[in-house]
Specification:
Length: about 170
């Protein structure tokens, strides 16, 4: 057996574990939006572009919470979706070759972030710089999945060669 196979599997697992933790963390941050905004605004100048925008966002969050708290249930479902998507990558941890489709699904989802953020954010009146930050999550998420896919394809070829070497 090729001694590199366990090493490459371990590399893939480490990358995917990082990706899963990042997804879970990202989802968890959707729940306490008001608290996060309050803390963030303590550290930003109020007269800066981002400070004034986030102050407006905080005011909207507070107003929504006071009058329509049920709307935050959507944020809870957003967090839940992040958790569920993270769980799908458990298959890659077990068997990257058999579950390469999960990596491809994740890469497609990351690519879809770009047009969605640009179009939906534009329709909602978000400034371009905000939409570009949202797009960066798709780009940053794509990179570890792409690396994992390349390593998985390499692993698949090494395993195929290993099976052939048994007969020769």
């Amino acid at each position: 057996m090729n001694k590199q196979i366990p090493h490459i599997k371990n590399q893939i697992r480490c990358i995917i574990l990082f990706f899963m933790v990042a997804l879970i963390f990202s989802g968890a941050t959707a729940i306490p939006a008001q608290t996060e905004l309050t803390i963030l605004l303590r550290h930003l100048p109020a007269d800066s572009v981002i400070g004034s925008l986030l102050a407006e966002v905080l005011h909207a969050v507070q107003d929504t919470g006071a009058h329509y708290p049920f709307l935050f249930y959507g944020n809870d479902w957003l967090a839940f979706a992040h958790f569920v998507i993270a769980v799908t990558f458990a298959g890659v941890l077990r068997d990257p070759v058999r579950n390469i489709w999960v990596l491809e699904f994740g890469m497609i989802a990351c690519a879809m972030v770009l047009p969605f953020a640009l179009i939906a954010g534009g329709l909602r009146g978000l400034p371009l710089w905000w939409r570009l930050i949202d797009c960066s999550f798709g780009v940053v998420g794509f990179i570890p999945l792409w690396i994992s896919r390349l390593k998985t394809l390499h692993l698949q070829e090494m395993m195929r060669q290993d099976r052939l070497n048994i007969f020769f």
